[in-house]
Design a protein that fits this description.
By secondary structure, this protein is of the alpha+beta class. It is built from 3 helices and 5 strands.
Length: about 100
């Protein structure tokens, strides 16, 4: 199982994904630069990603808590999500996301 992650330089990476892991953990543990300062507690917005349009409707809707945290993120778009709030399962094999710009 894989997820496809486009980094901030526009390079797409195919990452091995593990069922039950947060997408943020997969990205971080495979060595891509994602801050994820709160470690997945939905208490920051440093794991902000853009979900590919073909995947948006296939993921669960964001919770109110996630939406509130996204208010703290830079360059929020309609397809913005916190990668810590997406728990990988086999239905998400091939999920495509792009790392959002980092807070400087």
């Amino acid at each position: 199982m894989k997820i496809l992650v486009t980094d901030r330089d526009g390079v797409e990476h195919s990452l091995d994904a593990i069922e039950g892991w947060r997408v943020m953990e997969i990205i971080r543990d495979r060595g891509l630069p994602i801050k994820a300062e709160c470690g997945g507690a939905c208490a920051c917005a440093t794991c902000h990603v853009y979900v590919d349009e073909t995947w948006q409707a296939r993921l669960p809707e964001p919770t109110d808590e996630e939406i509130d945290m996204l208010d703290n993120a830079l360059e929020v778009e309609d397809n913005s999500r916190l990668s810590c709030q997406i728990i990988f399962n086999p239905e998400y094999d091939g999920l495509k996301v792009t790392l959002a710009p980092e807070d400087m």
